[in-house]
Amino acid sequence: MKQLLLGLAWILAIATGAAAGDNGKVYIPLDNAMEAVDTTLSNAKEHKKRALIIMGANWCHDSRALATNLQSPEIAGAVADAFEIQYVDVGYLAKNFDINRRFGLPVIFGTPTVLAIDPQTNRLLNRDSVHIWSSAASYSAVETLEKLNALQAQPAARQSEPEALARLTAQIDEFEQQQAQRIYHGYSIVGPMLASYKAGEKPEDFERYWQQLYEMRSQLPRDLQNLRSEAQLRAAAGDKGVRLEFPEYSAFDWEKPVRQLTETK
Prior knowledge:
Layout: H1 2-16, H2 33-46, E1 50-56, H3 61-70, H4 76-82, E2 83-89, H5 97-102, E3 113-118, E4 123-124, H6 141-152, H7 163-198, H8 206-236, H9 258-264
Parallel strand pairs: 1-2
Antiparallel strand pairs: 1-3, 3-4
Helix pairs in contact: 1-8, 3-6, 7-8
């Protein structure tokens, strides 16, 4: 029920343009977004900062709210001292996904997605928490800075994994890749419907499709975090030959056979 209410609240927000109003519209289409990311990483390395690659869209109230907070007088100076920022437009969930994949994140779970990158190693520092920024409109400027300070404190070096943990991690990564493909397929279906919805049309099945996708992509990062925590515990305990139990998610309506879908309507 909570996920349903959150999904419906999101639909209301995109319809009314809530939260950030006309502010925070910084997600501008670029001729070469990857080149802009390269420049940001180079600047961060030169100035001994970390890079924030923020993947969002101007239609998304959470994306605009985050940009507005980052530019607020309360925290703008502190943010600029610690980070080089590049805003990346994902359109209607349709482009620039090569950027998150470059840093080892198979899929973005929502907008905005904030990638905190160590420019010395190009390592993604916050893989387990990229999803929290999809609720950026609920954070004050000060709360936003607190979360960024946590990213700044993340260690830059990656610790090597024992063999047992590496094996379990590989299982988790394979599962994540499989679910990422389902989400991307969902984006290819729902994205054009979202664009029509924002243009004032009412695409058939949009709200139902969006809700299904919202629930799955909201739950997946939490499940991945739990799986990685379990893997660390099992490996530390010396468990051998362990196979993790992976969650199953209901089929989206567009994944169901036509006959089954007709019967459920």
